[in-house]
Amino acid sequence: MDELEIEQEGHVEGLSAPAWAAFGDLMAGVLGAFVLVLAAALVGQLDLAHQLQAEVEQRQAEQARREALERALAGPLSDGRITLVEGRIGISGAVLFAVGSDQLHPEGLALIKSLAVPLRAYLAQRDEILMVSGFTDDRALATAKFADNWELSAQRALNVARALMAEGLPPDAVFAAAFGPQQPVASNDDAAGRALNRRVEIAPTPRPRRVAASAP
């Protein structure tokens, strides 16, 4: 090997070391990026798994709550005096009140009293309260006692709530809400539909969390 060949070979070897070093740095960077992406994917999968598990547990708890309420109200449900749809107890307005009135019928008051015992037992085992909601049809009132259907539905809900409290439900476990002609369950174009829309619903709902008072 002459001197020129030796010189050329040394020159190539001198260039190869930095090239391999740069290639190694590049591969290390790629590997590091891959590890970061993989770690992020794993964290995302764990978060998704936890979220799915929480949703499953929430659905199971809701199903258990509805089944417990159905068992507590088996009597009035079996004879058709009330309905239970998605955890909401429905009572026909005709059972409770005369058209345009907020005064409970004797049979309506008796029904409310019969519901008080199982509802009180149900609430005693859960951190929930009862929302009593009043609904009407969309026809104008034929009485001057109430300004509109909103006021009528509010007073009806209040009277049902008061009847429940008179039967031993704690005042802090019952509240009233008025929806007037909103949220109909049937058409208001015929008498049968309007009768269905005139109703009171009683629905267990989670108790609002108390906010701790801030320190002065």
TrEMBL record:
Superkingdom to which the source organism belongs: Bacteria
Keywords attached to this entry: Membrane, Transmembrane, Transmembrane helix
Entry's transmembrane regions: 20-43
Keyword Electron transport: no
Ranges of residues in domain OmpA-like: 84-208
A Pfam family it matches: OmpA
InterPro entries: Bact_OuterMem_StrucFunc, OmpA-like, OmpA-like_sf
PANTHER family: LIPOPROTEIN YIAD-RELATED, STATOR ELEMENT OF FLAGELLAR MOTOR COMPLEX
Entry protein name: OmpA family protein
Highest classification ranks of the organism: Bacteria, Pseudomonadati, Pseudomonadota, Betaproteobacteria, Burkholderiales
